[in-house]
Amino acid sequence: MTIFVVFTVMSAVFLVIGLATMRLLKLYQLQTKRIHDLQNQITALCSGAAGTDDRIHKFEQTLSKLRDHQRSLDLSANHQPGYDHAIRLAKKGADIQQLINNCNLSDEEAHLITTLHGQRNVH
């Protein structure tokens, strides 16, 4: 009878160990799947971040080019002929040649300013 009791106890112990092992195996498989899913998500996030970095870099390059272009436009605007001064001279009666010489205007610019602002048009 003692062998039967020992066999029954050992069977119960093996059954508990087997059930615990199966439970741990299922938990291991579930956690392995979760880890794999998280690795995939991290990979996707890193890929997206790399794409974002590229877009930000291109945006910064474009912004830099626009700033440079704006600076060159600002510099060229500061070196343009003095239209305000030419208009004042035309209103005082300066002729086309005087506007060309004194204000560094082209012939066409001087004609236009004289036509628009010269003394002939003053009423």
Automatic annotation (TrEMBL):
Read off the InterPro entries from this record. Answer: DUF2802
- What is the source species? Methylophaga thalassica
The record's section on Pfam families has:
DUF2802
**Which residue ranges run through the membrane?**
6-25
Keyword field:
Membrane, Transmembrane, Transmembrane helix
**Know the name of this protein?**
DUF2802 domain-containing protein
